[in-house]
Amino acid sequence: MAREIPNETVEKWLAWKHWSNHWNTLHYITGFSSAALTVVIAANAKAQFMGPLLTTILAGIAAGLTFLVTAFGAQIKGKGFEVAGRELEVAMAKYRTNPDLPDSFLGEAEARGVEILNNMK
Fold this sequence. Notes:
mainly alpha; rod-shaped
């Protein structure tokens, strides 16, 4: 019979999965938006379908989004939460199926996950 995982551990694992998705989504949306605006600005240089003020505003927004992608480090944060979550998921699977593992096994996995998150750069 499979052992039950404590709710606190499951909640932490779900939170880490959530934050991984959140940071990865932020990374992709800002990166794609910046790239799309850059394409529109480049096309405008040839066809001149926007006024100079709008072109300048869009260029500023594109530059700002590019800055945010870099400054937030969203991809690194997303990866960190993903790796921490996987560390905990592996421990939960082993704990669930091996009655010889002590309860502290899950706590050690959480600690390794926190260590991963602390080392995100």
